[in-house]
Specification:
Elements lengths: L6 H20 L12 E2 L2 E2 L8 H16 L5 E10 L2 E11 H10 L1 H9 L2 H12 L2 E2 H8 L4 H13 L3 E3 L6 E4 L4 H15 L11
Antiparallel strand pairs: 1-2, 3-4, 5-7, 6-7
């Protein structure tokens, strides 16, 4: 006689096995169990997330700062961008995410994103990231209908301290050096939002 079976428990067990297989096949790291790593305050330390010990030390620093100061989180980033004869290298360490969230709630982020948010202004910024250029060159390369249209967009970008006139060559414009990393990281954030590895949303107008 067949014994009574707990189908609910069996289904749950199968789901766990499938999730483990997906993680193995996809090469995705599984989350540690609740007792899998030490806690610093409310933050659980995550070990072996990256093979580079230097990167893991930065992660550990973020985790410690977040847990010890009861923060919602911390981020750190570094990079280099070299193009058009200019180079920008940066190491930005442990920014509290509470400060980043405040930028959104205060309206500051909205104003900055609105300033750079049109396609024409983005085209100018990306073109100048690649190489400093005059207004005439921008008009030609980006197919603006008139110099006035170029200056119409350059004016708010200059006012926002994103673009400046190149001191070495009169009439040539460039990205303000200490703003390069911010623009690159905005684009990196957009890339992350569009990453379909974990989700496949559809952009709508």
């Amino acid at each position: 006689m067949e014994q009574n079976r707990d189908y609910g428990a069996e289904i749950d067990s199968l789901r766990e096995e499938i999730a483990e297989l997906k993680a193995m096949i996809g090469g995705k790291a599984k989350e540690l169990p609740s007792d899998g790593g030490e806690f610093v305050g409310h933050v659980q330390k995550m070990a072996n997330m990256h093979p580079d010990e230097h990167i893991m030390s930065l992660m550990s620093e973020c985790e410690n700062k977040c847990g010890e100061n009861n923060l919602s989180g911390c981020v750190t980033y570094l990079g280099v961008f070299a193009s058009g004869g200019n180079q920008s290298s940066w190491i930005q360490k442990t920014i509290p995410t509470d400060d980043l969230l405040d930028l959104g709630l205060s309206g500051t982020a909205e104003k900055m994103l609105a300033c750079i948010g049109s396609q024409e202004r983005l085209n100018i910024l990306i073109t100048l990231l690649r190489q400093p250029m005059s207004a005439a060159n921008l008009m030609e390369q980006l197919q603006f209908t008139s110099p006035g249209r170029v200056y119409h967009h350059l004016k708010p970008l200059i006012a926002a301290d994103l673009v400046q006139e190149d001191e070495r060559v009169k009439g040539r414009y460039e990205i303000v050096p200490h703003r390069v990393q911010g623009l690159i990281m905005i684009l990196a954030g957009v890339s992350d939002l569009l990453d379909t590895e974990f989700s496949a949303g559809v952009l709508s107008e």
